[in-house]
Structure formats: C-alpha cells, structure tokens
C-alpha cells in the first residue's frame, strides 16, 4: 500500500505577459501535474496559482490548453472544432465565424474549414487544436508536450510554426517537454525540474535571437544550453538509479 505521493514541492515560478517559457524534466518530475494545476484541472494542497492577479480555483477561459493527443471532436469539421469553445462562451454566431476564420488563417488551414479530423495529418490536427485554444484568446496558452506524438520532420516544422504563431499573436505560452533541444529552440526561459518530488533545480535564460530557424541549432551557444540542461537531467537519473 502506497502512502501519500508528493508530486511537486516548493515550486516558485513566474511568467511575464508575452513570454514563451518551457519546463523540462525527466519522467516523474511533475511536469504534467504542474500544468494541470495552472489549468485548474487539479487543486494544489498548498500554495496558490495566480493569473493576472486572480487566484486559480478551476478551469477558465483565461487559460487555453493543448495536449499531446489532439482531443478534436471527430464528428465536427475543422471550423466547428475551432469554434466550439466560443460557442460554450456564448459568443454570437457572426462573431464566432469571424474569429474562427481569423485563427484558421493564422494556423494556415483556411482551406480545410469543412474537413473532418480524420482527413487531416497529425501536424494539421495539432494546428487545429492550437487554433481552438487561441480562438478563445486566453491570457496564457498551456501546452503539454504537444509535438511528442509527431515524426521528427513534422515536429520540427511545428516548432517553427509555433514560434511564428507566438510572435504574431504575442500570446503568453508555458510549454512542458522532455525534449531539451525543443525547449532551447522555443523558449526565452527554461525551468529545469528535479525528479519526484518536482522542484525547480535551475532556471535558464536563453540568450538567442528571437527570430529563430532550424539553423540556430548549429550555433555553439545553442549546443551549450542543450548540453548543460541535459547534463543536469542525467545527473538526476544517476542519483535515482544509484
């Protein structure tokens, strides 16, 4: 019989408006738990989570969520999937259509508004999921390893796409990932979590150009960040195994 498991402990992070932040950690570090707490899907046993001065007590339209699985409604076409949250919010139909059209254009899927999810590739499905979250115009977009199920070529294309979306919309983003290279490519700052109970081991400010392409992965500074963060995570693994 197991006792109480402490998933996270002494977590203290801050995210400024318009920032792109990543949290990385090994399996069991509480990354997904952290995101669920901020989303209001779980309740912390201690401490508080504040978004724009207001305490989080449950899910809300001020926080959008994108999961690794696409979570699209298979019986709805792309436009209806994107507009679903707006309909729940009671947004008038004309305004819904206008906003759906705008965000389908943002994610490059204007020509697929009437398509069903089964007709889309994995990358396209994830674009729809991102458009659905952005359409509700959240104060922060929470992303739980959104590209983890994609092949490497699609994953790299989606990383570039996400950076372009972030720059175009100025949306605040918190993304968790186990992929260190992905985090360095995307983030302005990275929080490294220890293994259970998850705590903030170190914060990295990523001093790389804002306008990034895959070529930046060849920079020595990019490799330096990747190696340093990877070494931290390997050190945790040795402690656990040992």
TrEMBL record:
Membrane topology of this protein: Peripheral membrane protein
Main location: membrane
One Gene Ontology cellular component: plasma membrane
Domain ABC transporter: 1-220
Compartments (UniProt record): Cell inner membrane
UniProt cross-references to InterPro entries, sorted A to Z: AAA+_ATPase, ABC_transporter-like_ATP-bd, ABC_transporter-like_CS, ABC_transporter_ATP-bind, P-loop_NTPase
Gene Ontology molecular functions: ATP binding; ATP hydrolysis activity
Pfam families: ABC_tran
Sorted UniProt keywords: ATP-binding, Nucleotide-binding, Transport
PROSITE patterns: ABC_TRANSPORTER_1, ABC_TRANSPORTER_2
Family: Belongs to the ABC transporter superfamily. Nitrate/nitrite/cyanate uptake transporter (NitT) (TC 3.A.1.16) family.
This protein's name: ABC transporter ATP-binding protein
Natural source organism: Limnofasciculus baicalensis BBK-W-15
């Amino acid at each position: 019989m197991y006792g109480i498991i402490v998933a996270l402990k002494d977590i203290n992070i801050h995210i400024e408006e318009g920032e792109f932040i990543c949290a990385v950690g090994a399996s069991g570090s509480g990354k997904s738990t952290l995101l669920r707490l901020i989303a209001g899907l779980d309740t912390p046993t201690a401490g508080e989570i504040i978004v724009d001065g207001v305490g989080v007590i449950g899910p809300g339209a001020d926080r959008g969520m994108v999961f690794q699985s696409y979570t699209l409604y298979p019986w709805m076409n792309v436009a209806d999937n994107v507009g679903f949250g707006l309909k729940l919010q009671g947004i008038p139909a004309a305004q819904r259509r206008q906003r759906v059209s705008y965000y389908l254009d943002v994610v490059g899927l204007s020509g697929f508004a009437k398509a069903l999810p089964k007709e889309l590739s994995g990358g396209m499905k994830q674009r729809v999921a991102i458009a659905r979250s952005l359409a509700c115009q959240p104060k922060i977009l929470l992303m739980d390893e959104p590209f983890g199920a994609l092949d490497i070529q699609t994953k790299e294309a989606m990383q570039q796409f996400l950076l372009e979306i972030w720059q175009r919309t100025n949306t605040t983003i918190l993304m968790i990932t186990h992929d260190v290279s992905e985090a360095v490519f995307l983030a302005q700052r990275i929080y490294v979590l220890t293994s259970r109970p998850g705590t903030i081991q170190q914060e990295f400010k990523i001093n790389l150009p804002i306008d990034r392409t895959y070529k930046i992965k060849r920079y020595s500074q990019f490799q330096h960040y990747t190696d340093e963060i990877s070494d931290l995570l390997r050190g945790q693994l040795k402690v656990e195994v040992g």
